[in-house]
Amino acid sequence: MFQAALAAALAAAFAAVEALVALSDFPRYPLTSGPSPIHPLERLTAHLGADVRLVDEGFGIGVKSSWERALEDVRAAGGRPYAIPAGASDHRLGGLGFANWAYEVQRQERELGVFFDTIIVCSVTGSTQAGMIAGFAGQEARRQVIGTDASARLGETRALFS
């Protein structure tokens, strides 16, 4: 989660776009200076210009109140937010986006002269992975898409498939 927040802040800084990042469920580390403990990626993300908010809503795939608050705060400030959910299952076109992403990978492979025979993706509900598989299924070259369960809730994950 931290790396994704950092990547979002970095991309936003590069494109001169404002970013709001909500972080939760992470350890805080004491620094040698400063008033309170802070995670190194929290500091770096803020340094890149992102509005960093620390929330305590726990892990889960559903839309959080911090998400809704962030959208409302942007609107209240006169902005128009483009909200990117945590995974493909949180948006009606999420899986389609990752299916199209597979074609973008194919295009970049041609341009770079490489082929990735295995894609490894963090997976909780599986919708992101499913979109990738659907996109790659429409291509001639075969490859493997491996999902790693990031939920850390083995019982719930197994219940989905029983």
Structural overview:
- With 162 residues, the chain is an alpha/beta fold.
- It folds into 2 domains: 2-84, Rossmann fold, CATH 3.40.50; 89-160.
- 43% of the residues lie in helices and 12% in strands.
- It has 6 helices and 4 strands.
- A two-stranded parallel ribbon has the order 1-2. The protein has a two-stranded parallel ribbon with strand order 3-4.
- Helix 2 links the parallel strand 1 and strand 2.
- Helix 1 packs parallel to helix 2 and helix 4 (94-112) crosses helix 5.
- The mean pLDDT is 74.
Give a short overview.
With 162 residues, the chain is an alpha/beta fold.
Layout of secondary structure:
Blueprint: H1 2-14, E1 20-23, H2 40-47, E2 51-54, H3 65-76, H4 94-112, E3 118-123, H5 127-137, E4 144-149, H6 154-160
Parallel strand pairs: 1-2, 3-4
Helix pairs in contact: 1-2, 4-5
